[in-house]
Amino acid sequence: MPIMNVCYSAGDLDETSKADLARTLTDIMIRMEGGANTRGGRAFAWVLFNELPQGDWWAGGESGNGYVSPPGRFLIRVSIPEGYMNASHKSEVHVWVTDAVLKATAASGQDAGQSIQVVLDDVPEGNWAAAGHTISLASIADSVGLSKTGDRFAWSKSYFAAKARVRKAAGYPADAGGLWTENAG
Fold this sequence. Notes:
The protein is globular and about 50 Å long. It has helices at 15-32, 39-43, 87-105, 137-144, 151-170, and strands at 3-9, 46-52, 74-81, 116-123, 128-130, 133-135. It has a four-stranded mixed sheet with strand order 2-1-3-4, covered by helices on one side. The chain has a two-stranded antiparallel ribbon with strand order 5-6. It is built from five helices and six strands; from the N terminus they run βααββαβββαα. The model has no long low-confidence stretch (mean pLDDT 89). By secondary structure, the protein is of the alpha/beta class. Helix 1 (15-32) runs antiparallel to helix 3 (87-105). It has a domain at 3-123: Macrophage Migration Inhibitory Factor, CATH 3.30.429.10.
């Protein structure tokens, strides 16, 4: 259930390259979801574009391009459920998203991509909702058709088990949230 928010400077994407990038980023989100190329998986794969006017995005203390490499300024924030990916998978996503921007803009050269930043934001368990209902990582897996018997789901369960042990040892209240509940899968 990732959401990608793409910020870019005015003029750095035309409508065709924006549409190409949106399709590629959607495919990346399906890959991120373990290949959940289902109606549910695609319905959860959102790409938002925010074009910033010239003069509203500064780099190196100036609004010009003196500190900007081709294809221009891009900040892609990827919201994902906490416990969804290990560090290696997150690194893959950084590469996939950067490559998608470079391809959509046809940027090349030694410095190409240096001004593309990809930030993955882990949304704590219990802080995501749809249709007014709090949803868990397990319910997301159900919605998108992701298997609960594979290595990825097992890793998520072990992540939350370790987090629960740490919180208990630190004396957190049981209802502090952010933990996988028994009925979550």
